[in-house]
Specification:
The complex is a heterotrimer of chains A (263), B (317) and C (328).
Chain A lengths: L2 E15 L5 E10 L2 E3 L3 E5 L6 H8 L7 E6 L2 E2 L5 H10 E4 L13 H11 L6 H11 L5 H5 L8 H13 L5 E5 L7 H18 L2 E6 L2 H7 L2 E6 L2 E7 H6 L4 H9 L8
Parallel strand pairs in A: 4-9, 4-10, 7-8, 8-9
Antiparallel strand pairs in A: 1-2, 1-3, 1-5, 5-6, 10-11
Chain B lengths: L1 H27 L2 H23 L30 H36 L2 H16 L2 H14 L7 H27 L2 H9 L3 H12 L1 H24 L10 H10 L8 H29 L8 H13 L1
Helix pairs in contact in B: 2-3, 2-11, 3-4, 3-6, 3-9, 4-6, 5-6, 6-9, 9-10, 9-11, 10-11
Chain C lengths: L4 E14 L2 E14 L3 E5 L6 H8 L7 E10 L2 E2 L5 H10 L1 E4 L13 H11 L8 H10 L16 H13 L5 E5 L7 H18 L2 E5 L3 H7 L2 E6 L2 E7 H6 L4 H8 L49 E2 L6 E2 L6 H5 L3
Parallel strand pairs in C: 3-8, 3-9, 6-7, 7-8
Antiparallel strand pairs in C: 1-2, 1-4, 4-5, 9-10, 10-12, 11-12
Helix pairs in contact in C: 4-5
Classes of the chains: A alpha/beta (263), B mainly alpha (317), C alpha/beta (328).
């Protein structure tokens, strides 16, 4: 297997203004090296403030790293702008945490999936493709969902519509930032299952970002644990969960709620 | 060929009528907007009629001065011997025209400047922001006098153009600030970020998404700017930079106040334009609140009794 | 083991006005809250759990309305109480920790004075009760020095602990916790939950615990009431729920929770979406999503039945038959 996406000592500092003149810098990421293999589901795990969401946003260049490099298919993409950045972004798509915020309330499901197809100059039949994408994310029948507005469908369905929108660009990498944390427990497995079948059927590599080790153990192959902007532990998911070496990882495992346990 | 075109033309017209009907339907969903709309339409009909059917020349000093309402002058006469009703009637259209012009043009400028600065790079944003701030900080009176004297100096008959321009110049900045801040907040939302990520251009995002999202603010800004236009009319006249030979509700009030109608008890001179302006303001405010409730369902209050009755029959069925 | 109920809810009917008329959110709800235990109210979004909490605390606002029913607390019907009486009862007898409670603190007042406000509002002298304030702060494992801080000087978790300390200040009989840790960091959440549990064991306060996160709810609760479409479909103890579920919904929902060590194939996928109470449905409300339904399920509405187990109620006409089809 080859590495599709790789970071080289990525750091990110944010300026925090305190008064008019004085300011502090906060190190959100500190020398982070990760890689993603092809057709892999990789989990980035950490509590809030660990830098996992910052890393996700850097990987799609919603933020620029303060230092460090990003390689996509062995190309240094760190300095990409304009057309090259657009091309990169169509290869690396992101799924947001809150499906109630990531779809435009004034547009239909159809519009959300049509736009990326138009923007990427889709060669085939756009109508058929929209149906195909909706079927792929298990929204059947597509014609029923196409004319719906986001507020007319449930959170789980919205997240699936968002997946269809991201997949319309035929990305090679999908970065999913807490895609199920806003969903009801009963609906989570549906979306996780879908992510996994996207990897199987389309060969998309996925970075799954979460604080919840319960869901990590269900879908991911490999795991990085982030703490205060640093990678504190990495390895195969089963190994890390069975034998955590870092105390922070142990705390996260301990905090993962288990219905069969009593507090 | 011709007949086919004809049919599609007809269909288009039918379509437009249907669309207007549904827009009106939206207005009538809500008591407030319906009332506001009815008042506004009545005033507009009054204004259009006033252009053609004023009983006397509103400018002519053809009556005895300061007559209280009587059978000839149903609203009496001014301190200069003009017919008050004719002035009110003929002055309605210019007043409305100014209000709407200021409302529409002022809002367009505010939206353009505000959205641009809210969605532009940081440097452009800062530049626009400081220009807006200058307009907000410099007192409006100063601007009105400055531009007013300039226009007066032109000595050409520009009609209401100078007044409208002055009111727009002094009235756009506040709206621009509002649009800047709502655009800033909207453009940080995930669904806009998502469009950036799928490769939408900035122009496309502004026209397809941001304008829609800030539409309620645009509508309310239009009403407030239009209100400012009507109120400002009197103010402009009072500062002596308007065109006092024109008849509108602003000049009417100006002359009434100038002649101290409120001290000499000539209520028939001062009250009609005041009430009409108030009614116009009231209709704007009602429309604004009503449309806000339609756009934002959480503000709505449902009629409990009716709903209960309906629900009972539902369950019985 | 059936305890002594501190609160009895009878035939409660709550709903919201909307453009389509009155939508029923909670339908004919009967529930006993047993003393000295944590009752978890479970259910998916839209099941009515937050509405229930607000109805109990009488904090439900228009367009929500309590249509009918009784909530008997210490012999009195809360729904018949006047505002004055209600205000007295709040904090002394029943206290409420709302969703995003950290925003409930007054940003321009030091924490200590906010504790004073609670005491003064209930006619107690703040100076005399200083020891009480200190004790409740210690109880939630905060340092006493936070009393002299402003809310913005504290972290989210500390603020949440402060709100919990305030709710415990007047040693209420019943505390309602509505999503008390939602929005907090996982580790902080875990610590606070552990502390709440410990406080409850020490003081024996009765608690009603509500959260959308089912695994946390199971971890915390002694008794669980499972809501579906505004009705209780099952009520029982933690172990009854896990070992002997009597309603298919309880069984499927429990099995749908992803957790460490369970393979993806073994996690149940519940079909369909949670629905609101549908008055036009004469049969079981769960029928649209139930894989075990029989023809008679659509014919009449199931009642809440007492099982032969102690204090274990269920609302299913097909029990125990459905269990033969399910593999536990």
């Amino acid at each position: 297997m080859s590495q599709i996406l790789r970071t080289e000592s990525i750091s990110k500092e944010f300026m925090v203004r305190k008064g008019l003149v004085t300011g502090n810098t906060i190190k959100a990421l500190n020398d982070v090296n990760i890689y993603l293999e092809e057709r892999e589901i990789l989990a980035l795990v950490g509590a809030s403030g660990s830098g996992k969401s910052t890393l996700a946003r850097i990987l799609v260049f919603l933020y620029r790293p303060t230092s460090g490099k990003i390689f996509f298919q062995d190309q240094d993409v760190t300095k990409y702008k304009g057309r090259k950045l657009k091309k990169y972004r169509s290869d690396v798509q992101m799924v947001f945490q809150d499906p109630y915020a990531s779809l435009d309330p004034y547009h239909t499901v159809d519009w959300h999936i049509r736009r990326p197809l138009i923007l990427s100059h889709y060669k085939g039949n756009v109508e058929e493709r929209i149906d195909e994408l909706l079927e792929m994310v298990r929204l059947n029948p597509p014609s029923y969902y196409r004319e719906k507005f986001p507020h007319q469908i449930s959170g789980g369905q919205r997240q699936r519509v968002y997946l269809a929108r991201a997949l319309a660009l035929e990305p090679k990498v999908l970065i999913a930032d807490e895609p199920v944390s806003m969903l009801d427990v009963s609906l989570r497995i549906e979306v996780l299952d879908l992510l996994s079948s996207i990897r199987e059927k389309l060969g998309v590599s996925i970075i799954y970002i979460t604080h919840d080790l319960n869901t990590v153990s269900v879908i991911s192959d490999r795991i990085y644990v982030l703490h205060d902007g640093k990678v504190v532990e990495s390895g195969r998911t089963q190994d890390v969960i069975a034998n955590p070496s870092d105390s922070y990882t142990r705390a996260l495992i301990e905090a993962a709620p288990d219905p069969y346990k009593r507090l | 060929m011709g007949s086919i075109n004809h049919v599609s033309g007809l269909e288009k017209i039918v379509g437009i009528i249907r669309k207007t009907k549904s827009t009106l339907g939206i207005l009538f969903q809500n008591g407030k907007s319906a009332t506001g709309f009815i008042i506004l339409v009545s005033i507009s009909i009054f204004a259009i009629a006033g252009l053609f059917f004023a009983p006397y020349n509103p400018d002519a000093y053809m009556f005895r001065r300061s007559l209280p309402p009587n059978s000839v002058n149903i609203l009496g006469t001014t301190g200069y011997g003009q017919d008050v009703f004719s002035q009110l009637f003929a002055g309605a259209a210019p007043t409305l025209f100014i209000g709407f012009s200021v409302g529409i043009l002022g809002t367009l400028i505010s939206v353009f400047v505000g959205v641009l600065s809210g969605f532009a790079s940081k440097r452009v944003n800062d530049l626009i922001n400081s220009i807006v701030n200058i307009f907000l900080v410099v007192p409006g009176v100063l601007l009105i006098m400055l531009f007013g004297t300039y226009f007066l100096g032109l000595k050409e008959n520009l009609g209401y153009v100078p007044t409208i321009l002055i009111l727009i110049i002094t009235g756009w900045a506040f709206g621009a600030r509002t649009f800047r801040s709502v655009t800033l907040s909207v453009s940080k939302r995930d669904y806009i970020l998502s469009s950036v990520l799928i490769g939408e251009s900035k122009v496309s995002i502004i026209f397809r998404q941001i304008i829609k999202a800030i539409m309620p603010v645009i509508v309310s800004n239009f009403f407030f700017t239009a209100m400012y236009g009507v109120m400002g009319l009197t103010f402009v006249e009072y500062l002596g930079v308007g065109n006092l030979s024109q008849v509108n509700w602003g000049t009417m009030l100006y002359w009434a106040i100038n002649d101290e109608a409120y001290l000499t008890g000539q209520w028939w001179w001062i009250l009609p334009p005041s009430l009409m302006i108030s009614a116009l303001m009231f209709s704007f405010i009602l429309l604004n609140f009503g449309l806000d409730e339609i756009a934002n369902p959480s503000l709505r209050i449902y009629n409990k009794k009716n709903r209960k009755a309906k629900n009972v029959t539902d369950t019985q069925n | 083991m059936s305890g002594n109920p501190v609160m009895k809810i009878r035939n409660l009917e709550v709903g919201y006005y909307s453009e389509n008329g009155f939508n029923i959110i909670i339908h004919d709800l009967n529930l006993d809250v047993n003393e000295g235990r944590i009752l978890g109210v479970a259910g998916e979004s839209g099941s009515g759990k937050s509405t229930l909490a607000q109805a109990i605390y009488r904090s439900l606002k228009y367009p929500g309305e309590i249509r009918s029913g009784e909530i008997i607390f210490r012999g009195k019907d809360l729904l018949k109480m006047e505002t004055q009486e209600l205000r007295k009862m709040r904090a002394i007898d029943i206290s409420f920790v709302p969703q995003a409670a950290m925003n409930a603190l007054n940003p321009v007042k030091k924490i200590l004075y906010q504790f004073y406000d609670v005491l003064i509002a209930h006619g107690k002298d703040p100076e005399e009760n200083m020891e009480r304030i200190r004790e409740s702060v210690r109880m939630v494992r905060l340092d006493e020095s936070i009393l002299y801080n402003f809310p913005h000087e504290l972290s989210g978790g500390m603020k949440q602990r402060t709100v919990i300390a305030m709710s415990l200040l007047l040693s209420p009989k019943l505390v309602i916790l509505d999503e008390p840790t939602t929005g907090l960091d996982v580790l902080v959440e875990h610590d606070i939950l552990k502390d709440i549990r410990e406080i409850q064991r020490k003081t024996n306060i009765t608690m009603i615990f509500i959260t959308h996160d089912l695994s946390i709810l199971y971890e915390m609760s002694d008794d669980i009431a499972m809501l579906y479409a505004g009705e209780i479909v099952e009520k029982g103890s933690h172990s009854q729920f896990l070992k002997n579920p009597m309603h298919p919904y309880t069984y499927l929902l429990t099995k749908s929770i992803p957790r460490i060590g369970v393979k993806r194939e073994n996690i149940v996928k519940l079909k369909g979406n949670p629905t609101n109470y549908d008055p036009s449905n004469r049969g079981c409300q769960f029928i649209t999503r139930c894989p075990y339904s029989e023809s008679f399920c659509s014919e009449s509405h199931p009642d809440l039945i007492e099982s032969d187990e102690d204090d274990h109620l269920y609302r299913c006409m097909n029990f125990p038959a459905w269990r033969k089809k399910a593999t536990i």
